[in-house]
Amino acid sequence: MTLKTASAVCLLIGLVSLSPAAEGDWIELYNGKDLTGWVQRGGKAKYTAEGDMIVGSTVLKTPNSFLCTEKLYANFILELEFKVSPVLNSGVQIRSECFETEKTVTAAGKTIKIPAGRVHGYQVEIDMDPAKKRWWSAGIYDEGRRAWLYPGSLGGEGKAFTEQGARTSNPDGWNTFRIEARGDSIKTWLNNELRASITDHMTPQGFIALQVHGVANRPEMENLKVCWRKIRLKELK
Protein backbone atom coordinates (compact mmCIF):
# COMPACT_ATOMS: atom_id res chain seq x y z
CA MET A 1 0.00 0.00 0.00
CA THR A 2 1.39 3.39 -0.93
CA LEU A 3 1.68 6.23 1.55
CA LYS A 4 -0.98 8.17 -0.38
CA THR A 5 -3.39 5.21 -0.29
CA ALA A 6 -2.76 4.61 3.41
CA SER A 7 -3.51 8.25 4.18
CA ALA A 8 -6.75 8.05 2.26
CA VAL A 9 -7.79 4.91 4.16
CA CYS A 10 -7.00 6.55 7.50
CA LEU A 11 -9.03 9.60 6.54
CA LEU A 12 -11.98 7.39 5.56
CA ILE A 13 -11.81 5.48 8.84
CA GLY A 14 -11.72 8.76 10.75
CA LEU A 15 -14.80 10.02 8.94
CA VAL A 16 -16.70 6.80 9.60
CA SER A 17 -15.83 6.84 13.31
CA LEU A 18 -17.00 10.42 13.64
CA SER A 19 -20.15 10.09 11.57
CA PRO A 20 -22.67 9.74 14.47
CA ALA A 21 -21.55 13.06 15.97
CA ALA A 22 -21.67 14.75 12.55
CA GLU A 23 -25.27 13.83 11.71
CA GLY A 24 -26.96 16.92 13.10
CA ASP A 25 -26.52 20.13 15.04
CA TRP A 26 -27.09 20.36 18.76
CA ILE A 27 -30.55 21.69 19.64
CA GLU A 28 -31.17 23.45 22.96
CA LEU A 29 -34.44 22.06 24.36
CA TYR A 30 -34.73 24.81 26.99
CA ASN A 31 -34.58 28.42 25.83
CA GLY A 32 -33.38 29.82 29.16
CA LYS A 33 -36.44 32.07 29.57
CA ASP A 34 -39.68 30.10 29.82
CA LEU A 35 -41.23 26.68 29.18
CA THR A 36 -42.12 27.28 25.54
CA GLY A 37 -42.00 23.96 23.68
CA TRP A 38 -42.95 21.93 26.76
CA VAL A 39 -46.32 20.68 28.07
CA GLN A 40 -47.11 19.20 31.50
CA ARG A 41 -48.86 15.83 31.80
CA GLY A 42 -49.79 13.54 34.68
CA GLY A 43 -49.66 15.10 38.14
CA LYS A 44 -49.60 18.70 39.32
CA ALA A 45 -46.01 19.15 40.49
CA LYS A 46 -44.67 22.65 39.87
CA TYR A 47 -42.28 23.36 36.99
CA THR A 48 -40.60 26.76 36.70
CA ALA A 49 -37.98 28.36 34.47
CA GLU A 50 -35.28 29.79 36.74
CA GLY A 51 -32.38 31.27 34.83
CA ASP A 52 -30.42 28.48 33.17
CA MET A 53 -32.48 25.79 34.94
CA ILE A 54 -35.84 24.08 34.74
CA VAL A 55 -36.85 23.38 38.33
CA GLY A 56 -39.43 20.77 39.37
CA SER A 57 -40.96 20.94 42.86
CA THR A 58 -42.98 18.25 44.59
CA VAL A 59 -46.64 18.75 45.51
CA LEU A 60 -48.48 16.52 47.98
CA LYS A 61 -51.33 14.21 46.95
CA THR A 62 -50.61 14.19 43.23
CA PRO A 63 -49.24 11.37 41.02
CA ASN A 64 -46.03 11.36 38.97
CA SER A 65 -45.71 14.56 36.94
CA PHE A 66 -43.99 15.01 33.59
CA LEU A 67 -42.87 18.10 31.70
CA CYS A 68 -42.88 16.84 28.10
CA THR A 69 -41.45 18.18 24.88
CA GLU A 70 -44.10 19.02 22.31
CA LYS A 71 -41.91 17.49 19.62
CA LEU A 72 -41.30 13.75 19.20
CA TYR A 73 -37.80 12.32 18.75
CA ALA A 74 -36.68 8.95 17.38
CA ASN A 75 -32.88 8.64 17.04
CA PHE A 76 -30.77 11.06 19.04
CA ILE A 77 -28.12 11.86 21.58
CA LEU A 78 -29.49 13.71 24.61
CA GLU A 79 -27.20 15.41 27.10
CA LEU A 80 -28.14 17.29 30.27
CA GLU A 81 -27.10 18.07 33.81
CA PHE A 82 -29.28 17.47 36.87
CA LYS A 83 -29.27 18.06 40.61
CA VAL A 84 -31.85 16.53 42.95
CA SER A 85 -32.83 16.47 46.61
CA PRO A 86 -31.28 13.08 47.50
CA VAL A 87 -34.47 11.65 49.02
CA LEU A 88 -36.45 12.43 45.84
CA ASN A 89 -36.65 9.82 43.09
CA SER A 90 -36.89 11.30 39.59
CA GLY A 91 -36.02 10.55 35.97
CA VAL A 92 -35.84 11.60 32.34
CA GLN A 93 -38.32 10.05 29.93
CA ILE A 94 -37.30 9.30 26.34
CA ARG A 95 -39.36 7.91 23.44
CA SER A 96 -42.41 8.23 25.67
CA GLU A 97 -46.12 8.49 24.90
CA CYS A 98 -49.43 9.61 26.39
CA PHE A 99 -52.86 8.94 24.85
CA GLU A 100 -56.31 10.42 25.42
CA THR A 101 -57.90 6.97 25.47
CA GLU A 102 -56.96 3.70 27.15
CA LYS A 103 -54.45 1.59 25.21
CA THR A 104 -53.39 -2.04 25.41
CA VAL A 105 -49.89 -3.32 24.63
CA THR A 106 -48.44 -6.81 24.67
CA ALA A 107 -44.96 -7.58 26.00
CA ALA A 108 -43.38 -10.96 26.80
CA GLY A 109 -46.75 -12.61 26.38
CA LYS A 110 -48.43 -10.28 28.88
CA THR A 111 -51.18 -7.76 28.17
CA ILE A 112 -50.64 -4.34 29.73
CA LYS A 113 -53.47 -1.81 29.99
CA ILE A 114 -52.35 1.82 29.90
CA PRO A 115 -54.96 4.25 31.25
CA ALA A 116 -55.94 7.38 29.36
CA GLY A 117 -53.59 10.25 30.17
CA ARG A 118 -50.87 7.98 31.57
CA VAL A 119 -47.33 8.92 30.51
CA HIS A 120 -45.45 5.73 29.68
CA GLY A 121 -42.19 4.72 28.05
CA TYR A 122 -38.46 4.52 28.67
CA GLN A 123 -37.21 6.39 31.73
CA VAL A 124 -33.57 7.04 32.57
CA GLU A 125 -33.68 6.85 36.36
CA ILE A 126 -32.46 9.48 38.82
CA ASP A 127 -31.81 7.69 42.12
CA MET A 128 -29.41 9.45 44.51
CA ASP A 129 -30.66 8.53 48.02
CA PRO A 130 -27.70 7.47 50.23
CA ALA A 131 -30.11 6.05 52.83
CA LYS A 132 -31.55 3.52 50.37
CA LYS A 133 -28.06 2.50 49.18
CA ARG A 134 -29.33 1.52 45.74
CA TRP A 135 -27.71 4.11 43.42
CA TRP A 136 -29.52 3.17 40.22
CA SER A 137 -29.19 6.51 38.41
CA ALA A 138 -28.95 6.04 34.62
CA GLY A 139 -30.70 2.69 34.89
CA ILE A 140 -33.53 2.20 32.40
CA TYR A 141 -37.08 1.81 33.73
CA ASP A 142 -40.17 1.28 31.57
CA GLU A 143 -42.62 3.74 33.12
CA GLY A 144 -46.22 2.54 33.12
CA ARG A 145 -45.44 -0.72 31.29
CA ARG A 146 -42.77 -3.31 32.13
CA ALA A 147 -40.90 -1.77 35.11
CA TRP A 148 -37.13 -2.33 35.30
CA LEU A 149 -35.30 -3.14 32.07
CA TYR A 150 -31.67 -2.46 33.15
CA PRO A 151 -30.82 -3.74 35.61
CA GLY A 152 -33.71 -6.09 35.05
CA SER A 153 -35.35 -8.05 32.28
CA LEU A 154 -33.00 -6.78 29.53
CA GLY A 155 -29.67 -7.06 31.30
CA GLY A 156 -27.53 -5.85 34.16
CA GLU A 157 -27.01 -7.17 37.66
CA GLY A 158 -28.38 -5.15 40.56
CA LYS A 159 -25.46 -5.47 43.01
CA ALA A 160 -22.79 -4.56 40.47
CA PHE A 161 -24.94 -1.72 39.11
CA THR A 162 -25.36 -0.35 42.65
CA GLU A 163 -21.63 -0.52 43.35
CA GLN A 164 -20.81 1.35 40.14
CA GLY A 165 -23.53 3.92 40.84
CA ALA A 166 -22.28 4.59 44.38
CA ARG A 167 -18.83 5.33 42.98
CA THR A 168 -20.06 7.42 40.06
CA SER A 169 -22.91 9.47 41.57
CA ASN A 170 -22.68 12.93 43.10
CA PRO A 171 -25.73 13.25 45.39
CA ASP A 172 -24.73 16.69 46.67
CA GLY A 173 -24.17 18.44 43.34
CA TRP A 174 -24.61 18.38 39.59
CA ASN A 175 -24.49 15.18 37.56
CA THR A 176 -24.44 14.64 33.79
CA PHE A 177 -26.50 12.29 31.65
CA ARG A 178 -25.69 11.23 28.13
CA ILE A 179 -28.40 9.15 26.48
CA GLU A 180 -28.09 7.66 23.02
CA ALA A 181 -31.09 6.14 21.23
CA ARG A 182 -30.40 4.70 17.80
CA GLY A 183 -32.79 2.16 16.28
CA ASP A 184 -33.41 -0.54 18.87
CA SER A 185 -30.29 0.38 20.86
CA ILE A 186 -30.49 2.61 23.96
CA LYS A 187 -27.38 3.45 26.00
CA THR A 188 -26.87 5.70 29.01
CA TRP A 189 -23.89 7.35 30.67
CA LEU A 190 -23.67 8.94 34.12
CA ASN A 191 -20.85 11.42 34.68
CA ASN A 192 -19.08 10.11 31.56
CA GLU A 193 -19.24 6.45 32.60
CA LEU A 194 -21.32 3.91 30.64
CA ARG A 195 -24.16 2.63 32.80
CA ALA A 196 -26.83 0.82 30.79
CA SER A 197 -27.19 -0.69 27.34
CA ILE A 198 -30.32 -2.42 26.05
CA THR A 199 -31.75 -3.65 22.77
CA ASP A 200 -35.50 -3.11 22.57
CA HIS A 201 -37.97 -2.08 19.87
CA MET A 202 -41.22 -1.42 21.74
CA THR A 203 -41.25 2.35 21.14
CA PRO A 204 -39.30 3.76 18.16
CA GLN A 205 -40.07 7.42 18.91
CA GLY A 206 -41.78 9.68 21.41
CA PHE A 207 -41.38 12.78 23.54
CA ILE A 208 -38.74 13.57 26.13
CA ALA A 209 -39.97 14.45 29.61
CA LEU A 210 -38.64 15.57 32.99
CA GLN A 211 -40.23 13.67 35.87
CA VAL A 212 -41.13 14.83 39.36
CA HIS A 213 -42.08 11.70 41.26
CA GLY A 214 -45.25 11.64 43.33
CA VAL A 215 -44.67 11.84 47.10
CA ALA A 216 -48.16 10.85 48.32
CA ASN A 217 -49.23 12.84 51.41
CA ARG A 218 -45.95 12.97 53.31
CA PRO A 219 -45.43 16.54 54.60
CA GLU A 220 -41.66 16.08 54.89
CA MET A 221 -41.52 15.48 51.13
CA GLU A 222 -43.32 18.66 50.09
CA ASN A 223 -41.51 21.21 47.88
CA LEU A 224 -38.43 19.06 47.24
CA LYS A 225 -36.51 20.11 44.15
CA VAL A 226 -35.03 18.51 41.06
CA CYS A 227 -33.20 20.80 38.64
CA TRP A 228 -32.16 20.29 35.04
CA ARG A 229 -29.89 22.47 32.90
CA LYS A 230 -27.85 22.42 29.68
CA ILE A 231 -30.49 20.23 28.03
CA ARG A 232 -29.42 19.65 24.46
CA LEU A 233 -30.18 17.10 21.76
CA LYS A 234 -28.57 15.99 18.51
CA GLU A 235 -30.82 14.08 16.10
CA LEU A 236 -29.28 11.04 14.41
CA LYS A 237 -30.15 9.39 11.12
Main pleated-sheet profile? 8 strands, antiparallel
Mean pLDDT: 91
User: Based on CA inertia axes, which overall geometry fits?
Assistant: globular
Can you tell me the CATH class? Mainly Beta
Binned, the helix content reads 10-25%
Low-pLDDT stretches are 1-21
Structural class: mainly beta
Secondary-structure element string = HEEEEEEEEEEEEHEEEEE
Number of helices: 2
Output the keywords.
single chain, Jelly Rolls, 8-stranded antiparallel β-sheet, disordered N terminus
Give an overview in words.
The protein has 237 residues and is mainly beta. The protein has one domain (25-235): Jelly Rolls (Sandwich), CATH 2.60.120. The chain contains two helices and 17 strands. The strands form three sheets. Strands 1, 3, 4, 6, 13, 14, 15 and 17 form an eight-stranded antiparallel β-sheet that branches. The protein has a seven-stranded antiparallel β-sheet with strand order 2-5-16-7-10-11-12, with no helix packed on it. The chain is globular and about 40 Å long. The model is unreliable at 1-21 (pLDDT under 50).
